[in-house]
Amino acid sequence: MADELTLVRKAAYTLLARREYGRQEMVNKLLGKGFDSALIDSVVELLMAERLLSDERFVDAFVRSRSNRGYGPRRIEAELRERGISDELSDERIAAGPSEEETDWVARAAEVRCKKFGEELPSDFQERAKQMRYLEYRGFTHEQIRRVFKGNND
After folding, report:
1. Distance between CA 110 and CA 148 in Å, rounded?
2. Do 101 and 107 touch, CB atoms closer than 8 A?
3. Could you tell me which residues come within 8 angstroms of residue 58 by beta carbon, excluding any fewer than 6 positions away?
4. How far apart are CA 93 and CA 60, in angstroms?
């Protein structure tokens, strides 16, 4: 039993050495390695008590990473939900943004649009709709997208 507990801890430490994990994601990873769920639960509780495993830290790193890759708040929230993060925690951290200062999601959406389509806002309705769909796919809200295009043909 003690040997198996050590193996579970060692596997968890190896995973945490690479990147942050949320509680549920860590449990799923360890279950995938074939460990007993009772042992996994005790190791996860220990890691959380030692502050080596933290949902808050994971969410902060995840929001920062996805935001830097050009994803919007709706997409980030959906991905966090898939990883077992509560809606309250994800809403709170996404509203705060990927860093200490307030994130301007509209400015981020504008950057993503410019990177993909260039500086010039389209005057053609079909091109504008195409760009709006792209931003929606990336996870920006309708209000954020509308504000990106606000200066052009409203």
Report:
1. 6
2. no
3. 20, 21, 22, 25, 85
4. 7
Percent of the chain whose predicted confidence (pLDDT) is above 90: 81
Strands (E), the chain: none
Does this model's pTM top 0.85? My answer is no
Q: How far is CA 106 from CA 1, 22, 102, 147, in A?
A: 53, 28, 12, 7
Cα 42 to chain centroid distance, Å, stands at 26
Q: Give the span between the Cα atoms of 88 and 94, in whole angstroms.
A: 10
Look at residue 154 and give its three-state secondary structure.
Answer: coil
Q: What is the reported pLDDT for 59?
A: 94
Start-to-end C-alpha separation, the chain: 68
Q: How far is CA 98 from CA 38, 82, 122, 143, in A?
A: 34, 19, 29, 20
